[in-house]
Amino acid sequence: MELEEVVQSRRMVRTFDPDRAVPVAFIDRALEAATRAPSAGFSQGWDFVVLTATQDRDAFWDSAAPSGALETPDRWLRGVRAAPCLIVCCSDPDRYRRRYAEPDKAVADPNAAVPEVHSWPIPYWDVDTGMAALLMLLTGVDAGLGGLFFGIPDTRHWGVAAALGIPRDRRLVGVVGLGYPLPDVRSPSLKRGRRPLAEVAHAGRFGVPWGLPASASTTPTTAQADSTSSGIIALAPSQ
Question: Angle at CA 137, nearest 5°, toward 136 and 142?
Answer without folding.
Answer: 95
